[in-house]
Amino acid sequence: MKRRHATLALAAAGLATTARAQGGPVEGRHYAPLPNALPATPGKIEVLEFFLYTCPHCYAFDPTLEAWVHKLPADVSFRRVPVGVQAMQRLHQRMFYALDAIGALTPAVHSGIFNAIHRDGVEITDEAAAVALVGRLGADTARFKQALNADGVRNKIAQDQKLLETSGISSVPMLVIAGRWRTGPGMGGTPAQDEAAGARQVLSTADFLIKQARQAAGGKTS
Which domains are present in the chain? Predict the structure, then answer.
C-alpha cells in the first residue's frame, strides 16, 4: 500500500508549533525548522531535495520540481541528495553520483531513471542492471562503470549520510531550504489531496522560505 510519504528507517524529526502570518505557510504544519542547521553556502540560498528513485511520491513530485528549479533566481542554488538505507537504494546513490561524475546526469537522464522504475517496471538491483539502463539512456557505459566504484562517489555518499543525520530528515521527498527549514508533500496536506496539488503547495512554501532567508541576509525580497 502506498503511503503519503516514503518513510526511511530513521528517527522522525519533531515539528515546531509556532504559526506564521495568517494566510501564509504555517510553521509546524507546512514547514518546520531543522533540529540542527546545515552548513551554508556563502552568497547562496541553497535548496536541497532528499529523494529516493524508488519512491512513488518522489517520482510524482519531480516534474513539478524540475520546472520550478528552472525558474529559480540567481541567488538560489539547487541540489538533489539521493538517500539510501537498503542495498538497492545505496546502488541507486552510486548510480546518481557516477552519472554526475562523468557529466551525464542531465534532467533527461534523471527523469529517465524515474520513468524506467515507475512506468516501465525496471528493477535496478545490481551493477549490471544499472549499466544497462544508463546505456539505454545514452550514457557512456565504460566511463560509468569506472566511476561507479570510484572513491569520489563513495565520499559523496558519505557526505550525504552526514547531511541526512544532521538534518533529521525521516521521509522523502523533502526539501531543505537555506540549511534551516524543511518542507515536503506530506506536510500540510490531506489524504485526499492529489500529488500535483501537494507539489504546488510545497513549492509555494519553498518560495516563502527563500524570501525569509533572503530577508534574514539583508537581501531583496523579490
Answer: 33-216 (3.40.30.10)
